[in-house]
Amino acid sequence: MPKKKMEFLYGDRVLQLQICDILKAPVDVIVNPANGALMHGGGLALKIQDAAGSELEKQSRLLIAEHGELESGMAVYTSAGNLPYKAVIHAVGPIMGEGYEQDKLEQVFSRSLLLCETNDWQSIAFPAISTGVFRVPVNICAQACYKAITHFWDARSSCAVEKIIICLTENNFPDFFEAFREESFDNKLLVEGQHSVNESSSSEGKVGYIEIDENEIPEQDDEIQDWFK
């Protein structure tokens, strides 16, 4: 899998977009894109459940038995079972067409981060929630993700959550890349050999850089290639 990464620095906090397997993310907790019944029957949810083992499935069933099905925008957590994480957060994203999809995605990203803060988890990995079988466009997810994270960090001068990784695929990385670029930078400057961009005008000192091998640039969509011209 090609290595592609976009990184933002918020003071000493790090936000990364990268093409990677969420089950290999070097974080305290990972996020499972769940349905309201916490029935992890397909896609990434099934992959996470299979890797975690029976304990995750058992705890998911207990949560539903005690509290009922979860609404879109809600997030809960279970143990990570056999996975090397402190927990798995189950984030229930919206289904396209139910309405207020971006608002609900902002809620589920924010609530996942609040669970981290409450439990003193310092790093978290998200997938592109709701962009699979729930059919929410990737750009809507990306905008919600960016807004939720920046609002969360901007509201806290000190915060347990120091690192966030958005784990993407070859298919959805370009749309996330473009959405984050539009949200983040007014002025962009490529520094040869570093693939860096200059500091944003924001007083928060937000900085981003990209690591993309020179021989991989032609593989990107035209909009991404434009940034390297």
TrEMBL record:
<dbReference type="InterPro" id="IPR002589">
    <property type="entry name" value="Macro_dom"/>
</dbReference>
<dbReference type="Pfam" id="PF01661">
    <property type="entry name" value="Macro"/>
</dbReference>
<dbReference type="InterPro" id="IPR043472">
    <property type="entry name" value="Macro_dom-like"/>
</dbReference>
<protein>
    <submittedName>
        <fullName>O-acetyl-ADP-ribose deacetylase</fullName>
    </submittedName>
</protein>
<feature type="domain" description="Macro">
    <location>
        <begin position="1"/>
        <end position="185"/>
    </location>
</feature>
